Amino acid sequence: MTFSAVVAIAYAAWTISSGVRLAVDTPTYSRWADALIGVGFNFSEYLRAQQFVAPPIFYLLWITTIAALKAVMGASWMTGVVVLNWLAVSLGAAVIIAAIRRLTGSAASMLLAMLLLLVAGDLLIFVPYVVSDVIFWAISTGVLACGVALAAADGDDRSARTRTIIAGTALIVAAVMFRPVAVPLIAFWIIAIATFTFRPLVDRFATPVLVLGVVIASVAILVHANVLNHPPASLPAMLTMVGAEYRAGMFVHQSSPPMLVEPAVDFLGFVRITLEKLLFFITPWLPHYSAAHTAINVLFFLPGYGLAIAAISNLRRLAPPQQRAVVVLALFVLFVAVFHAMTLIDSDHRYRLPVLPALVMLASIGLESVRRPRTLASIARVK
Predict the structure, then answer these.
(1) Cα 144 to Cα 162: distance, rounded to the nearest angstrom
(2) Which H, E and C letters describe 133-199, residue by residue?
(3) N or C: which terminal CB in the chain sees fewer CB atoms within 10 Å?
(4) Apex CA 11: angle with CA 304 and CA 126, to 5°?
(5) What is the spatial distance between Cα 133 and Cα 64, in angstroms, rounded to a whole number?
(6) Which residues pair with 129 in a beta bridge?
(7) 3-state secondary structure of 21
(8) What 3-state class would DSSP assign to 117?
């Protein structure tokens, strides 16, 4: 822990001292924040005056954060965002480690989690940027930790369960007000509550539940392809844009230079592009990555994916609370990947940040399923 903390602090100090980096959409968010300050943080007046691609509630918390930093720090507000990014990374890492400690009670699994977080290049690469993704990652991590704690609970401590539900629901609301891509988190939270409510059934049919999740995701891809192939007159603007990108062969949203594949001209073409986007979403490396970027991604994703698969394949070697944790985490990873494959993916992979804490937790449980399956699992301190 001391070593990882020293590395993190040193990297944070270097990042902050070397300055901040602007993202493509930073000027837009800055302009919206100025408008919010201009109306004296009058949210009702502000929302009436602004135009958004998605409903404005999905951006309001992030815009308020920028406006508050501008009001307090003036021209240095972007440095404030980077500081918040590092606080978010630190808090999210602590939440992940605490969740793994409760699930496994294993020093080895916590050490693995710390090492994976130190090489989580997909996350760390965005810390110097003025983006909402890092703070959203921390909020998502909190939702995942609450969901896992709820799904893995034994049901005896009602007060602890109530606190978990309140905290998780509050974080869901914050996530929805931060980024439109919080939709899979809502699905995850519903699944976590259902898993706890029907835990005897999940304990008995854990593997079929995962298979059902794959079937639902597959059906969603087919329905999505049919809708894009034969769009109704009232198709939402987002799906209209996605359909136009499919027909142009654009499978990565607004990439520069454009990343193109064979355009979709029929039902199977729309299915094909969604599957290509799904593979792009989960791949650890891309042709335009540097050697260092590729190496650090392999260090994260090779054990991350490998041990996550071990956790799923060794599901019956785990105690029921850990089985339920694996079920909700695996379904979350699946649904996030499919959600973005059917909507938008980005060339820098920032949309998959919420998947990273789920992979770290799954990998830590997978390590224990390989090292000391039933023995350790039976004494896991799940609270």
Answers:
(1) 16
(2) HHHHHHHHHHHHHHHHHHHCCCCCCHHHHHHHHHHHHHHHHHHHCCCHHHHHHHHHHHHHHHHHHCH
(3) N
(4) 60
(5) 15
(6) 21
(7) strand
(8) helix
Contacts for 76-83: CB closer than 8 Å, 24+ residues apart: 78/20, 78/22, 78/26, 78/130, 79/16, 79/20, 81/20, 81/130, 82/15, 82/16, 82/20, 82/127, 82/128, 82/129, 82/130, 83/16
* Phi-psi group of 363: left, alpha or beta (phi > 0 → left; psi -120 to 50 → alpha; rest → beta): alpha
- CA atoms of 120 and 379, how far apart (whole Å): 30
- % the chain with pLDDT above 70: 89
Peptide bond preceding 257 in cis form (omega within 30 of 0): yes
Q: Which residue has the tokens 């996030």?
A: 336
Q: Cβ contacts of residue 314 below 8 Å, gap of 6+?
A: 366, 369, 370, 373
Residue 306 DSSP one-character state: H
Q: Is 19 left (phi over 0), alpha (psi -120 to 50) or beta?
A: left
DSSP 129: B
Measured in residues, the chain has a length of: 383
Residue 268: CB atoms within 10 A of its CB come to 11
pTM, entire model: 0.90
**Which of 140, 87, 93, 154 has its CA nearest to residue 118?**
93
- Secondary structure letter of residue 132 according to DSSP: S
Query: Which of 70, 135, 72, 47 lies closest to 353 in space, CA to CA?
Result: 135
DSSP state of 284: S
Residue 266: pLDDT over 90: yes
Contacts of 173 (CB under 8 A, 6+ apart): none
Q: Which amino acid is at 316?
A: R
DSSP assignment string, 249-268? TB-STT-SS--B-PPP-SHH
Q: What are phi and psi of 129, to 5 degrees?
A: -95, 150
Rg (the chain; Cα; Å): 21
How far is Cα 125 from Cα 235, in angstroms, rounded to an integer?
36
The per-residue pLDDT for range 314-342, each reduced to its tens digit, is 998 899 999 999 999 999 999 999 999 99
Please state the separation of Cα 371 from the chain's center in Å. Answer: 28
User: And the tokens for 124?
Assistant: 């760390």
Q: How confident is the model at residue 376 (pLDDT cuts 50, 70, 90)?
A: very low
Fill in the DSSP letter of residue 126: T
Backbone φ and ψ for 14, nearest 5 degrees, come out as: -65, -40
pLDDT of res. 11 = 53
CB atoms within 10 A of CB 244: 12
Distance from C-alpha of 381 to C-alpha of 383, rounded to nearest angstrom? 6
